[in-house]
Design brief:
There is one protein chain. The protein has 2 domains: about 20-55, no CATH class; about 70-125, no CATH class. By secondary structure, it is an alpha+beta fold. The chain is built from 3 helices and 6 strands. Bound molecules: zinc ion (2 copies).
Length: about 130
């Protein structure tokens, strides 16, 4: 004897037959907002990440983007363009920098490492031991 509950009016499960991956994908479920410290839950498609409040870009507090400082100040009083050499903050290789009159902000990386991705890549290959 099975322990199944006897249901007088068992619903006909004819839909199950057509339950494909596509219908599954569209199924909404209870989700939890992934925004920092947000406890809200909401009904949405599985790929949703934020609750009603946080999914609206106008109400969602902007995550502070840490702007990596890629520039350094070079105060000077030259009134002609000069060329200096300094070590790249990433790889340490010397690179040439053109100093312009009236301009104090200059990139602190060599030409190659002004690219954020390349800096990451370089650091990955030169892990400090
Ligand atoms: Zn939220
Ligand atoms: Zn470099």
């Amino acid at each position: 004897m099975s322990e199944k509950q006897n249901q007088v009016e068992a619903p006909v499960k004819e839909k199950k037959k057509y339950f494909t991956a596509e219908t599954k994908k569209k199924k909404e479920r209870l989700m939890r907002c992934t925004y920092n410290d947000c406890e809200n839950t909401f009904i949405a498609f599985p790929h949703a990440r934020f609750c009603e409040y946080h999914k609206d870009p106008t109400t969602r507090p902007k995550t502070k983007r840490v702007e990596k400082n890629t520039m350094f100040k070079f105060p000077h009083e030259y009134n002609v363009k000069i060329l200096i050499e300094r070590a790249c903050d990433c790889c340490g290789k010397p690179y040439r920098l053109e100093i312009y009159p009236g301009r104090e902000d200059y990139p602190c990386f060599c030409e190659e490492h002004q690219n954020d991705w390349k800096r990451k890549h370089w650091k990955m290959n030169h892990v400090e031991k």
